[in-house]
């Protein structure tokens, strides 16, 4: 029998669209042919999401509430749930007589932030204990978790802290387009200051290992410049000469493949990546990497005024455990409407499965 990994899925902000897209993703029978999904969240929220899915999409699934991963049924038609009991029933709209979706309209709040944070901590604990094979995260609100007293700038930093990981980076992926970041959730002014040889070299190394974790045996890496035209030899900035190029040379001396042997101008590096020049790109800051991924993965139907696709995966590289995530926010404005896309969550589950198998084969 083919090995099917247990994938722990954090429910996300209970007042966001995480519960709904979880239900929609797990309404796909093929998911259960590839893995054993286990949701960590709240029964109150998941039952509401099931009601919305039934009204809007005709999806009818059962919940199996468990206390440990070994109690899961992992069969199509049943969602296995570890209920942390953090959201009281009176915080969720009554569904007993609901015949049309009733959006929450709650917004970011400390209760939602605390719950979402605890779901993430739980899946990390389960993975570190070897009770699940990988983790997948729905979106949380950075504002809400900080309102709850957890002062992190996002999932990446939570995972790094709770796994005692000093060197890590975020990877975004959509199909064969993959990007890692030298810096993420800091101001643009600070991001420029963080472009230093040692950090760039660390990210190149992590990118190389991250591709190998996906089964790419000899990764080709593109390294973006920071400044327009890569600084034109100092005319527009010296970072490429003083920091990025030395990091590239050190990486190549270790046998890492960087085809161009120098920084690539940011306005062409992603077109080249899409053309197959690289397996992954090292971006110098958050938006430099995020914008091209979201232009490719987020598709809005202007005539019908809705999102046709919200695809892409966020993976944290360098951790001792596997973490993949949706590449979008909490969808607070869509929560309870039944209109949120599950595609990014499905992509994240598939990436987690791929990484589990690659680790086993390594």
TrEMBL record:
A Pfam family that the UniProt record links to this protein: PdxA
Keywords assigned by UniProt, alphabetized: Metal-binding, NAD, Oxidoreductase
Domain of life where this protein originates: Bacteria
SUPFAM superfamilies per UniProt: Isocitrate/Isopropylmalate dehydrogenase-like
GO molecular function: metal ion binding; NAD binding; oxidoreductase activity
InterPro entries (alphabetical): PdxA_fam
Coiled coil: none
Cofactor(s) the protein needs: a divalent metal cation
Subunit structure: Homodimer.
Family stated for the protein in its record: Belongs to the PdxA family. PdxA2 subfamily.
Record protein name field: 4-hydroxythreonine-4-phosphate dehydrogenase
Organism this protein belongs to: Lacrimispora celerecrescens
Phylogenetic classification of the source organism: Bacteria, Bacillati, Bacillota, Clostridia, Lachnospirales
């Amino acid at each position: 029998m083919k090995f099917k990994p247990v994938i722990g899925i954090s429910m996300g902000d209970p007042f966001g669209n995480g519960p709904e897209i979880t239900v929609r993703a797990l309404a796909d029978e093929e998911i259960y042919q590839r893995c054993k999904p286990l949701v960590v969240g709240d029964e109150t929220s998941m039952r509401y999401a099931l009601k919305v899915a039934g009204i809007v999409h005709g999806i009818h699934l059962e919940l199996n509430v468990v206390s440990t991963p070994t109690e899961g049924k992992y069969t199509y038609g049943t969602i296995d749930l570890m209920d942390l009991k953090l959201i009281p029933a009176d915080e969720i709209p009554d569904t007993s007589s609901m015949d049309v979706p009733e959006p929450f309209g709650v917004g970011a709040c400390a209760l939602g932030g605390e719950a979402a944070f605890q779901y993430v901590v739980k899946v990390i604990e389960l993975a570190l204990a070897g009770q699940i094979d990988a983790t997948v995260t729905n979106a949380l609100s950075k504002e809400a978790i900080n309102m709850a007293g957890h002062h992190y700038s996002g999932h990446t930093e939570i995972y790094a802290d709770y796994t005692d990981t000093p060197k890590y980076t975020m990877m975004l992926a959509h199909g064969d387009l993959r990007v890692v970041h030298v810096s993420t959730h800091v101001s643009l002014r600070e991001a420029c200051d963080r472009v230093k040889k040692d950090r760039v070299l660390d990210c190149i190394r992590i990118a190389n290992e991250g591709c190998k974790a996906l089964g790419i045996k000899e990764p080709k890496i593109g390294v973006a410049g920071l400044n327009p035209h890569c600084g034109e030899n100092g005319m527009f900035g010296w970072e490429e000469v003083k920091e990025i190029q030395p990091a590239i040379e050190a990486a190549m001396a270790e046998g890492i493949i960087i085809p161009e042997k120098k920084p690539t101008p940011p306005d062409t590096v992603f077109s080249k990546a899409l053309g197959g020049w690289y397996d992954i790109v090292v971006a110098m800051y958050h938006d430099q990497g995020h914008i091209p991924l979201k232009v490719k993965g987020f598709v809005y139907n202007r005539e019908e005024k809705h999102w046709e696709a919200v695809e892409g995966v966020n993976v944290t590289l360098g951790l001792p455990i596997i973490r993949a995530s949706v590449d979008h926010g909490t969808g607070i404005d869509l929560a309870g409407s039944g209109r949120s896309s599950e595609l990014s969550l499905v992509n994240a589950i598939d990436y987690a499965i791929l990484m589990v198998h690659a680790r086993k084969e390594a």
